[in-house]
Amino acid sequence: MSYVVRWVDPDGVERSESFAKRGRYDQPGTAEYYKHQLETRMARGMYVDPDLAKVLLKVEVDKWIRRARTETTRYQRQNFANNLGDLASMAIGAIRPSDIRDWLDHLRLGRPWCQGRALGENSVALQFQFLFTVLNIAAEDGVIVANPCRKVERPSRPDAEKSPAELLTVEQIRSLIRHSNRQTGCMMLLTAQTGLRPSEVAGLRVCDVDFLRRKIFVVQQANHFRGKAPTARLKTPRSKRTVPLPAEAHRELSAFLATVERGRSDLLFYTKAGRPWSADGMGQRFREIAAKAGAPRGFTWHDLRHFYASALIAKGASVKTVQARLGHASANVTLQVYTHLWPDHDSHTISAIDDIFHPNRDNPRGVPENSEVDFDDRREEDGSATAI
């Protein structure tokens, strides 16, 4: 014997669903429970087509992968698809918060589908964000009623917020450059004084630098994939931007180009083998140099970009300015990483009162919005790349 729940959907089509048990309104998997849930959703205008909710999660993820704008994004999304585990074969409407928590535990403690290897907390947070995005799209499209990820505690990202103690110092950057060859030192200096992503530095061409007006036009990045074109589209539309080129970086870049043969359409930097740099290759080179320089463990090339952002903030730059310089997709991204570096309200209150009571004292002002990150002109005597 079976129990049938019948209803008419918003399009006027008669639908039905069969159950083995009648049950009660608070017993999942029974006819009465389904009827109660259905009536509640329809009354709230939250009806979803049951057939759509039966679509497997991996089908929706495949659609999401096909919408990727760049090779790098496609690669990241495909990697996410490979880490879905049991969620991949679940109906998207059947996924519950508890299923997501179990999945997160597998990612952290050991993935059965990957020889028991676990992921680091940053990678776990990224995988969760991808799942959140896919399920959010499904909710917006009416495939599911609500995103179950919203009821799961979001994994933290240890590297998402850099404390002042975790930032590179000027002295450490000087040391890194001293232990580099001229080209790598120039690349590091350029990153620290312009805030470009490693892949953006690797994708710079000679024609992307306006030496007269001291500007850099960020229009492409290095391709992550071998066998493909050496450059690719930027991470997001906001990544396309114009960045001021400080005097020291301008001077060192000019001096470097005077020692090599480059056409206007050539990349600025190539490896010793004559190949374009990749972000991975730059990361490996950074680790080698950091070891020689005795830098604390854990720093990466990306920390040069963090240094640039922190320098702007320390000099009074606004959220909007830092967002524009870094090419973040939104101010929320900027705030998520750097909000703790801006002076708090107490600091502003104290400063305001001090200014009123002591109007004639020396009071450092914030730099203008179009300011640059520049350092002193001290040079090394050994002829290596100029230290910052």
From TrEMBL:
PROSITE patterns: TYR_RECOMBINASE. Transmembrane segments: none annotated. Residues 163-351 form the Tyr recombinase domain. InterPro entries: DNA_brk_join_enz, Integrase-like_cat_sf, Integrase_catalytic, Integrase_recombinase_N, Tyrosine_recombinase_XerCD. GO terms for biological process: DNA integration; DNA recombination. Residues 357-388 are annotated as: Disordered. Keywords: DNA recombination, DNA-binding. GO terms for molecular function: DNA binding. PANTHER family: PHAGE INTEGRASE-RELATED, PROPHAGE INTEGRASE INTD-RELATED. Belongs to the 'phage' integrase family. This is Transposase. It comes from Nocardia cerradoensis. The lineage of its organism: Bacteria, Bacillati, Actinomycetota, Actinomycetes, Mycobacteriales.
